[in-house]
UniProtKB/TrEMBL annotation:
Stretches for region Disordered: 1-24, 448-470, 509-533
Phylogenetic lineage: Eukaryota, Viridiplantae, Streptophyta, Embryophyta, Tracheophyta
Residues annotated as domain NPH3: 157-438
Keywords in alphabetical order: Ubl conjugation pathway
Ranges of biased composition (kind: Acidic residues): 15-24
Highest taxon in the source lineage: Eukaryota
Any one Pfam family match given in the protein's UniProt record, by short name: NPH3
Keyword Cell cycle found: no
Similarity section: Belongs to the NPH3 family.
One annotated GO biological process: protein ubiquitination
Protein name as it appears in the record: BTB/POZ domain-containing protein
Pathway: Protein modification; protein ubiquitination
SUPFAM superfamilies documented for this protein: POZ domain (SSF54695)
PROSITE patterns attached to this UniProt entry: NPH3
Length: 559
C-alpha cells in the first residue's frame, strides 16, 4: 500500500472484526486482478519491490515490470523512487542504447498489448532498431571473408538474425519503418532472407533446421509469404538473395496456392537472375490437380519468357562489363548459361509420359538460337523424349526433332544420331548429310595442315635442342596422316549408306501401292517442298557424292 496507489485504494476500507478482536475469515478481502499485464512472476517481482526486496531488471523483464508498475500506479507522485521511475531509467540507460536489447524488449511487448503500446515502449524500441539498422555500413558486410558467408549470399548482420524472434505484426512494422528511412536495398532484403529462413518451413532443400518452432497455420504462412514477397525489390536482387532462395519461395507459394500476382512477382524476380539457378531449382513438383505432369513445366516456361524479356533489354542497355557481372562465373553471355540449364531440364522432364509434344517443343524453342553453341544437350533431351514416348506418330517425331539445329551437332552426336533407330527418316538423312560435311571439312583441314607443315619453307633444325621438337612435329604429322586415312574410310562408309538410302527413297517414291506401310507415312509435301534445299542440295534427292566431285588424285597424293 505504500508503493501502489491502486492497491492502497482497494485495501483502504476498514476491516470488520469480531467482539473478541479477531478477524472473521469470511470477511477477508480477496482481490482479483484479471486484467493485470504479464504473468504471476511479474506481479511477484512488483510485490517484492514494494517490500524493499532487491529485484533483477533485464531486457526480458523490464517491459513487463514497467507495465505492471503502470497498472498498479506505482508512480513518483505516490511514493519516491518508485517502480515506474526505476524501469524507465533502465529503459533509457540500458535498453534504448542497444539495438539487440531493444529487439528483446520488443519481443516481450507482444504479450503486453495494448498497455505496452499506450506507454510507447513498442514504438520506442522500433525507432531504436530502425536507427541502428540504417546506420549499418553495408560496405563493412562485404569485407567479411568468404568462409563467413551464409547460404543466401553474404553473412547476415547480427541485428538481422535478432529480428527473426519477432512475430509478424511487429516485424512488418519494423520493415515499414525502415523503408520510410530509405536505406539501401541490401539491408531490407538481408533482413527478409533471415526472417524467411527462420519462419517459413521447408524453404531450403539443402538444410533442415530441426530446432524451429512448429509451423504456423496456413493463413498465417500465406500472410508471411506475402510480406516477404511484397517487400522484395522488383529490380535485380542484392547479394543477399540468390535464385535458390527465390525458387524456395515459389515452391511455398505453389503449395499454399498463393494469389497469381504474388507468383508472377516471384517468377519475374527469378528470371532476373536465372543464370544462378541449378537444375534442382527448376525441378519443382506440380501441386495443381489440373496439371498431369510430374513437374511444374508451366512455371518454368513463364520464367523463361520473363528471362528473355529482361535479359534482352539488359544486354541492349548495359555495356560489356556490366553484362559480364550478370554471370556468377563471369564467363560469357547469360543466354549460354541458361541454355545449358534448359537442356538439362528438358532431359530430366522428357521421361514424363504426360508431357505433351507441344509443351516440350515450346520450352526447347523458348530461347533464341544463340543460347546454344552446340545442340548436343538438346539432342540428348530429344532422344530421351522419343524413348519415353514410343507411340508418337511420324509427324510428331519430326516435330520433336525439329527443335534441333543439325548443323550445331558435334561429330560425336552426329555419329550417335545416325545409328539412332528412334529418329524419323528425315532427321536421319539430315544427320548423315551434316556428319559427312563435318568429316569432309575435318579431312580438308588435316590435309591443308599437313601440306603447310611439309612445305620446305625453312631448313631443318640442327641436331641440337631443336632436334627434339623436329622429331615431335614429324611424329605428329604421321599421326595426322593416320587419322586422315581413318576419316577417309569413314566418309566412304557414309557415302555408301547415303547411296543406299537414296535408292530406297527413290523406290518408295516410285511405289504406288495403296495401303503399304511407307505409303501410309507419306504426307502431301508442304508449300516450299520437303526442305531438301536446306540441306544444301540442289534437288530433292540429290545427295552429295564425294567420288564424283573429288579430284582423281587420291588423298595420299594430295598430302
Amino acid at each position: 500500500m505504500l508503493k501502489s496507489r491502486k492497491l492502497h485504494e482497494l485495501l483502504s476500507e476498514p476491516e470488520h472484526e469480531e467482539e473478541d478482536g479477531e478477524i472473521d475469515e469470511s470477511d477477508i478481502r480477496r482481490i482479483s486482478l484479471h486484467d493485470f499485464p504479464g504473468v504471476s512472476a511479474t506481479f511477484e517481482a512488483a510485490a517484492k519491490f514494494c517490500y524493499g526486496v532487491r529485484i533483477d531488471v533485464s531486457s526480458t523483464t523490464v517491459a513487463p515490470l514497467r507495465c505492471a508498475a503502470e497498472y498498479l500506479e506505482m508512480t513518483e507522485d505516490f511514493a519516491e523512487d518508485n517502480l515506474v521511475s526505476r524501469t524507465e531509467l533502465f529503459l533509457t540507460q540500458s535498453v534504448f542504447r542497444s539495438l539487440s536489447q531493444s529487439v528483446k524488449v520488443l519481443k516481450t511487448c507482444e504479450t503486453l498489448l495494448p498497455l505496452a503500446e499506450d506507454l510507447g515502449i513498442a514504438q520506442r524500441c522500433i525507432d531504436i532498431i530502425v536507427t541502428g539498422a540504417c546506420a549499418t555500413e553495408v560496405s563493412s558486410l562485404f569485407s567479411w571473408p568468404v568462409s563467413d558467408r551464409h547460404k543466401n549470399g553474404i553473412r547476415s548482420a547480427t541485428w538481422m538474425e535478432d529480428l527473426t524472434i519477432l512475430n509478424l505484426p511487429f516485424y512488418k512494422r519494423v520493415i515499414s519503418a525502415m523503408k520510410e528511412r530509405n536505406p539501401s536495398t541490401e539491408l531490407i532484403e538481408g533482413s527478409l532472407v533471415s526472417y524467411a529462413n527462420r519462419t517459413i518451413p521447408g524453404l531450403s532443400r539443402s538444410k533442415r533446421n530441426l530446432k524451429t518452432a512448429p509451423p504456423p497455420a496456413e493463413p498465417a504462412q500465406l500472410d508471411l509469404l506475402e510480406t516477404i514477397i511484397t517487400n522484395l525489390s522488383p529490380a535485380r536482387s542484392s547479394v543477399f538473395i540468390n535464385a535458390q532462395f527465390l525458387f524456395g519461395l515459389l515452391r511455398t507459394a505453389n503449395i499454399l496456392h498463393a494469389p497469381e500476382s504474388l507468383r508472377t512477382a516471384l517468377e519475374k524476380k527469378i528470371a532476373a537472375q536465372l543464370e544462378q539457378a541449378t537444375l534442382d531449382d527448376l525441378l519443382m513438383p506440380s501441386y495443381s490437380y489440373l496439371v498431369e505432369t510430374l513437374y511444374d513445366v508451366e512455371a518454368v516456361e513463364r520464367v523463361l519468357r520473363y528471362f528473355i524479356e529482361e535479359a534482352s533489354s539488359a544486354i541492349t542497355a548495359e555495356n560489356v562489363s556490366e553484362n559480364e557481372e550478370r554471370s556468377p562465373a563471369g564467363n560469357g553471355d547469360p543466354f549460354l548459361t541458361v541454355g545449358r540449364l534448359v537442356d538439362g531440364y528438358l532431359a530430366e522432364v522428357a521421361s514424363d509420359a504426360n508431357l505433351r509434344v507441344d509443351k516440350f517443343c515450346d520450352i526447347a524453342l523458348a530461347l533464341p538460337d544463340h543460347s546454344r553453341v552446340y545442340d548436343d544437350g538438346l539432342y540428348r533431351a530429344v532422344d530421351v523424349y522419343l524413348k519415353a514416348h514410343p507411340a508418337l506418330t511420324e509427324s510428331e517425331k519430326e516435330k520433336v526433332c525439329g527443335v534441333m539445329n543439325f548443323r550445331k551437332l558435334t561429330l560425336e552426336a552426329c555419329t550417335h544420331a545416325a545409328q539412332n533407330e528412334r529418329l524419323p527418316l528425315r532427321a536421319v538423312v539430315q544427320v548423315l548429310f551434316f556428319e559427312q560435311l563435318q568429316l569432309r571439312q575435318a579431312i580438308a583441314g588435316t590435309i591443308l595442315t599437313a601440306e603447310d607443315e611439309d612445305q620446305p619453307t625453312a631448313p631443318p633444325p640442327p641436331p641440337s635442342t631443336e632436334g627434339g621438337r623436329w622429331r615431335v612435329a614429324a611424329h605428329e604429322n604421321q599421326l595426322l596422316r593416320l587419322g586422315m586415312d581413318s576419316m577417309k574410310n569413314r566418309v566412304q562408309d557414309l557415302e555408301r549408306e547415303c547411296s543406299s538410302m537414296r535408292r530406297a527413297i527413290e523406290r518408295i517414291d516410285r511405289s504406288g501401292e495403296a495401303g503399304g506401310r511407307w505409303q501410309r507415312r507419306r504426307r502431301p509435301p508442304p508449300a516450299g517442298g520437303w526442305g531438301w534445299r536446306k540441306l544444301g542440295c540442289k534437288s530433292r534427292l540429290q545427295v552429295f557424292d564425294s567420288r564424283e566431285a573429288a579430284p582423281k588424285r587420291s588423298v595420299e597424293e594430295q598430302s
